[in-house]
Amino acid sequence: MSIKISGAPCCWGVDDPENPFLPVWEHVLYEASQAGYHGIELGPYGYIPVDIARVQEELAKHDLTIIAGTIFDDLVSPGNLDNLLKQADDICSLITQLPKPLKLSGKFNPPFLVIIDWGHDERDYCAGHPDHAKRLSRHEWNNMVSHIRSLADRAWNQYGVRPVIHPHTGGYLEFEDEIIKLMEDIPYETAGLCLDTGHLYYSKMDPVKWLKECSKSLDYIHFKDIDSDIYQQVMGERTRFFDACAKGVMCPIGQGIIDYDSICALLKDIDYQGYITIEQERDPRLSQTSLRDVKQSLDYLKSVGFQL
């Protein structure tokens, strides 16, 4: 398979850049290189600074490239567009001036701009519960679609960065009906998909089925695994997604409930050619075990035929 494995700062608990317990970004890059990575995501906007010379120096020190930057913000509210576009400009201007990852034979190559809706309590507390979660009105949905189109146009037309939309647990793009409507309203020519095995499973979808059904729109993939016992526990609670992660619902790849033998076989069947990023969200106060867990995930994936 022409597939490369990369990493993400969320494996060190980096999801909220305002969290006072985050490890410093230089340490995350150091441990990513110690794990054997050659590529990593930027993480949430504001974590790694928009400072080309400084970031370039750290990446070179650890033989790393940036696979993607992420907009992880409210895509729905009409008044948030200017903020979203500023993030797109800052992220894309940074990642396009850094050393490029190895090109593979996929339709699009990194770095990507990953677009995620986030920041709605009413959905966060219903994470993983499609039957209970509020859906957007038609007007609200159209606002979100318009914002995604604006971000996609900015990334591609001004910077040549391929935008990919990431359905995310706890946001307004999470469940089966929302992914189907998203693909109807935003054509592949405008933006691709970044599907996440852990988010799919958490939100009551079969990762194998959805990777297959969305294969023609799939530009990028995130791999996670889920601890079955903790998952069953948090599904019985009114729990925010990242609170569930702090309880350990995400575990190293190959140690949880997701069927990676079938996923590996499927990626060969659909001839996926591209990048896959390992994610294992956690409480950053537990990041002292991140390197160990990342190595376990990498060792498992290498054992079933993936490469760094």
Automatic annotation (TrEMBL):
GO terms for molecular function: endonuclease activity. Residues 30-303 form the Xylose isomerase-like TIM barrel domain. InterPro entries: IolE/XylAMocC-like, Xyl_isomerase-like_sf, Xyl_isomerase-like_TIM-brl. SUPFAM superfamilies: Xylose isomerase-like. Keywords: Endonuclease, Hydrolase, Nuclease. It comes from the Bacteria. It comes from Bacillus haynesii. The keyword Nuclease applies. This is AP endonuclease.
